[in-house]
Amino acid sequence: MASGMRLLLACAAIFLVLVGLYSAQAQVNNMTNPHGFNYDQSFIDVVKKITQHVPEGETIVVSNLAPHITYLSERKAVIPWGADSIEALASDMKKSRWNYLLVIEGRSSSVKDLQYLFSRDGRSELKEAFNEIAVHDSDLLGFHLYKLRSNS
Predict the structure, then answer these.
(1) What residue numbers bound the domain in which 22 lies?
(2) pLDDT confidence tier of residue 83, bands split at 50, 70 and 90
(3) Are residues 66 and 93 in the same domain?
């Protein structure tokens, strides 16, 4: 019975080592991919710089990467899951008393219905309800910060 337990523990240990090696290799591949998000050397600095335009305590509505934006900006970042149009986005933001929208160009929107609105071509439609207050580019991405117009 004891030898059976040792064999089971040895197999479990080998399995954990193999899983760890596989995970580490996947992370290295992701970080060294020149087209991958983690390869963007200026991402952290750009996020910190553009979110300085947002007062502390304010929530930032983001097109994508909410956890990254929250961590780096020290401000709550949310994705507008319920919005399916610019009108719905502005209305939801107004109801929630959220004034800032950060569109990350170069990453598709997490909200499928807003992908066009958050694209290079679609951003021009944001002028109906938002004022663009800052633009910064990282190595791979463009960051556009908007403030909700008070009359929308």
Answers:
(1) 1-32
(2) confident
(3) yes
Gyration radius from the chain CA atoms: 21
Shared domain check, 64 and 122 = yes
d(CA 100, CA 75): 11
Q: Are 146 and 132 in contact (CB under 8 A)?
A: yes
Token couple for 88: 């719905």
Question: In which band, very low, low, confident or very high, does the pLDDT at 91 lie, cut at 50, 70 and 90?
Answer: very high
Q: Shortest CA distance to 117 belongs to which of 133, 101, 134? A: 101
125-129 contacts at long range (C-beta below 8 A, 24 or more positions apart): 125/86, 126/86, 126/101, 128/86, 128/152, 129/86, 129/87, 129/89, 129/90
In the predicted structure, residue 86 carries a pLDDT above the cut 70: yes
